[in-house]
Amino acid sequence: MLKTYTHGQATDRPPVLIVHGLFGSARNWGVIAKRMSDTRQVVAVDMRNHGQSFWAAPHDYPAMASDLAEVIGSLDGPVDVIGHSMGGKASMVLALERPEIVRKLIVADIAPVAYSHTQQGMIDAMRAVDLSTVETRGDADRQLANFVEDQGVRAFLLQSLDVKAKAWRLNLDQLEADMDAIIGFPSVSGTFAGPVFMLSGAESDYVTREHRPEIKRLFPTARFAKIPGAGHWVHAERPREFEEACRVFLDA
Known about the structure:
Blueprint: E1 4-7, E2 16-19, H1 30-36, E3 42-45, H2 61-73, E4 79-84, H3 86-97, E5 102-108, H4 120-128, H5 137-144, H6 151-158, E6 161-162, E7 167-168, H7 172-177, H8 179-183, E8 196-201, H9 212-218, E9 223-227, H10 234-237, H11 239-251
Helix pairs in contact: 2-3
């Protein structure tokens, strides 16, 4: 089963399951998970081939959705789900395939469509770091800066570096092999009739008006909102606003 991190105690409210994006981990969501656990139990996961979870093929959405269903089976379901980017796609497939175990769904800055921008460049950048020479995170950051300009993106990637073990906590080979599946979206029959909140960054182009017909086809109740001043990493760039929007939707 996926590695899980539980915050707070079980209450009479459904638990919240948090599902991170590509190259991320439950650690990225620690502050939001801890804060939201004041009223209900919050469980964050490391997805397969990420963090402390197992490495396995394939890295596609049906497999990831199955992993999430197994976690929910260990909780007192159904649950509310928050998924970002790759985690948002996995959460959408979960809701479409297993609607009885998902109560409400929040999808952070991703649509149920295929995208053209590959993340192969990030994999190449991480592989280019000579880990044998890395003694501190700063050492790795200086090498990574030759390939990744954005300091925030570097800091995000470096959360998945085990400096002591001189290894990435990411199965880069498998993620590369399944990159087409990761940026794509599988053909899933049926719809999810439960409440869905598509919460995006106003500065991001991941969810556009052109995507709305397909979103509404699969998720007929979907509501849309944008957080000003946030890009694709909406939860990291505007954590308080993101948390507040999630609370309002989940508590309604």
